[in-house]
Amino acid sequence: MRAWFAAVFTIIAITPAAAQTAADTAQNFPSRTIRIIVPFPAGGPTDINARIIAQRMSENFRQPVVIENRPGGNTAIGAQAVAKAEPDGYTLLAAMDTTLVMNPATGASMNYDPFKDFAAITLTAKNTSLLTVRASDGPKTIGELIARGKASATKLNYGAGITITRLAGATFAKAAGIDVQLIPYKGSSEVVQGLLTGSVDFIVDGIAPSLPLIQSGQFRPLAKLNSRALPTLPELKPLAEASGLPIDEMSSWIGLVAPAGTPSAIVQKIHADVVRAMADAAVADRLEKAGILAVTTTPAEFEKYFRDEAERWAKVYKESGIKLD
Prior knowledge:
- With about 325 residues, the protein is α/β, with parallel strands linked by helices.
- It has helices at about 1-30, 45-60, 75-85, 95-105, 140-150, 165-175, 190-195, 205-215, 240-245, 265-280, 280-290, 300-320, and strands at about 35-40, 65-70, 90-95, 120-125, 130-135, 155-160, 180-185, 200-205, 220-225, 250-260, 290-295.
- It has a six-stranded mixed β-sheet with strand order 2-1-3-10-4-11, sandwiched between helices.
- α2 packs across α10.
- The N and C termini lie far apart (about 65 Å).
């Protein structure tokens, strides 16, 4: 009995000490460099979003916040690295719909569990993707693209990187009744290069990487994948309207997560700093010019959002009958 009381006393004595240690750790956070792993090559919307946030976080925290690009495996390589990292707040993941929603929805091979391996921090952005062609030899409208696809003896090639844009291209082709061949790329910079060099006939990708080429007259956007207003391309119509086809809106998004087990106080501290950064008009303006809508949520809201999205897209993918290579 004495041994039992001693054990209970020890637990009671240790628990407040452990709680105090966690509080002290959060209070002193960060005391060294924070890494944000981006599971794509440099230059795409996720990379741009992460770098803008990292710069402001570094200024606010007065500690370096660096970007580490780890592309490949449909974002699984970067995701696994963060899932296995020490849950101390110093390794974060710029996660997106591919990582947390599309991979489980489409049954992709994953070496991480999106629902168990991460602590949600906040959404950071919602993106609008475009269906784009070369200005030199590409069609001038969606109708012309469909007509070209139906008249061609061979399949049109389209380039896309993330799962949602691959699925969007396939969904468009199915609705339009044309045969297409997906040319998969690891990230937006490769997607843009594929269109530029003539490797593909059209691409479905975020605005940021293509915008300079659109503005210089080398690329021609034919439609956007949702109805969100685009100050940089105010006349561009949604794909459903431009094609006259019953195509649902599709948007990609970006969020920030930490390894599961990261102390709540540290998650809240990072969350507060990101919200502060995103509330800055200069940050929002930089993102908007890249075609990225700055948004934030609470950790609980973000977790509910991506779980609901995973359920929705699993149903959409199953009912579509589309198979992605």
